[in-house]
Structure formats: C-alpha cells, structure tokens
Amino acid sequence: MPINYYIFLSIALFTIGIVGVLTRRNAIIIFMCIELMLNAVNVLLVAFSKMHHVAAYALDASTTAGTEAQLFVFFIMVVAAAEVTVGLAIIVMMYRNIHSVDINFLNRLKH
Amino acid sequence: MPVAELLFWFLTGLSLFGALMVVFSKNPVHSVLWLIVVFFAISGHYILMNAQFLAIVNLIVYAGAIMVLFLFVIMLMNMNTESEPQKNRWLRLAAIVSGGSLLLILVSALKDNKGSINGVNDLEGGIGLIQNLGKVLFTDYVIPFEISSVLFLSAMVGAVILGKKESANIKS
Fold first, then answer.
1. How many A-B residue pairs are in contact by the CB < 8 A criterion?
2. What is the set of domains in chain B, with CATH numbers?
C-alpha cells in the first residue's frame, strides 16, 4: 500500500471526527469524536513510522529506525486514557448539577 | 489482488463506516458500540503494518478499558434516543459543509505527493514487536514513562475529587 492511502484514511477519519464535534450536542458523543480524531493521528504516525523504517531497512537490515514514532503513539494512548478519566468525571459532575449532558446548557459557566 | 491489499480495503471501509455511524446514530449506546468497531478496524491496520504491540495495546486500552468507561457513564445517566438533544438543522448543515470543505482542501493539497516508493505494509523488520519497543522504552524513554505514572496518579485523584458527592464538599 502506498503511504497516500493511509494519509487519506487518516484525513477522512479526522474529518468525520470534526463533523461529529460540530454537529452533535451530546457531550459524551463529542468526547467520543475527539477520541476518533486522536486515533486518526495515531494511524498516520504508525504509517509514517513504517514508511521510514522500510526506507532505512533497504540500506541496513539491522536498523531500528521508526521506533520513536511507535513510542509516541504509545504515549498518546497513555495521555488519552488519563484525559478520558478526568473528562468523564467532569461530564458526570455536570450531569449531576444540571441533569443533562446538552452542551448548550453550559454556555454560561457561572451557574 | 493480494490478500494484504484486500484486507486493507476491508478494514478501511469498516473504519470509515463505523466512524460515520458513531456520528450519525441517534442512540449513544450504539455510538459507543460502533466506536469499538472502529478501534478493532484500526487495530487491524496496525497488524497490517506489523505494529503488533500497538495493535494489542489499542485493543486492551481503548476497546477494553476506555469504551467500557464510556458505556458505564452512558448507562449511569440512562440516556437513550428520546433524551438526545436536537440541533438546529441549519447549524448541522453548516457544520457538515465546513467539515466537507476541510476534507476537500486536505485531500486536494495532498493528492499530488509522490510519497514513498516502498509499500508501507511490507512485513520486513520487527520494530513494532514488544522486544524492540520495550528495550527503547526502558532505556531512552524511561523518564517520560515515569512522568506518565505521575500523570495517571493525578488523573486518578482528579477523577475521584470531581466524582465525589456534593454534600461531602459542603461539610468540609
């Protein structure tokens, strides 16, 4: 597969995530669309890592080029897990206070 | 058509369809289930690119832990199709048009690049295996690894404090 196909797949996933964030009003769905965008970026990073590795492998069969990108993806997943716990706690707190997860009720933060 | 190419197209179609269903399904529980489908398809892509450690971490962390958390919260709030807030039709149209034009611009900007001559999912080289990744993670990247443990601890404390009942706050 050429790298272009992975780039286009990643762009499509990212755009679907953006459309989801813009069209939905349910806070949890918006959160899930953010996860979708993070995963689109992860796919792109892994594809570029593999591309870099294949190019370096042709010169030197014992190379480990491209490892850093995969570790980057690993750290993105770690940070995403921490983000999800805090974000869901905030959404639960918001639901407890205003009995809704509609983000339009949050346009005034002082209430 | 070789089997890897067939698998690539199948997984791409599955992930895009799943992503569309996440956005457009009315019931939030269905959205979560479709998002799990998307994560499985993305893990398949990782396996095709021989990044096996990331594939299994994606399944365990995302599909296993995070999505269960989402599902628990949705069921805790007892959300369904009736309680789903509806948005203004013009606003929705504007959002779809702007997202589509972003897609158009990105694709038209990148469609002419030559890319690499090499295929991305040739199975040569084992950088995605846990042996190589673990070695680099615990030698070169050990400080970010330890810092991420502090991040997890603070996230856990923050989630507990945010999730506590309000009455306990008033007393203190």
1. 237
2. 3-140 (1.20.120.1200)
- Would you tell me which CATH number, out of the four given (1.10.8.50, 1.20.1250.20, 1.10.287.3510, 2.40.160.210), belongs to the domain A3-106? 1.10.287.3510
**Does residue B169 sit at the A interface (CB-CB below 8 Å)?**
no
Token output for B21:
């269903």
pLDDT in tens, chain B (172 residues): 688 888 999 999 999 999 999 998 888 889 999 999 999 999 999 998 888 899 999 999 888 889 998 998 888 887 766 666 666 788 888 989 999 999 999 988 888 776 655 566 566 667 778 888 888 889 999 999 999 999 999 999 999 988 887 655 554 4
Nearest CA in chain A to B28: A29
Q: Nearest chain A Cα to B56, which residue?
A: A74
Name the pTM for this structure. 0.89
Overall residue count recorded for chain B in this entry = 172
Asked if A92 contacts B76 with a C-beta cutoff of 8 angstroms, the reply is yes
Could you tell me the two tokens for B90? 């013009």
What value of ipTM does the predicted structure carry?
A: 0.91
Domain-wise residue ranges, chain A: 3-106
Taking an 8 Å cut-off on Cβ atoms, the answer to whether A75 and B106 are in contact is no
Query: What is the DSSP annotation of B74-95?
Result: HHHHT--STTPPP--HHHHHHH
Q: How far is A102 from chain B (nearest CA, A)?
A: 6
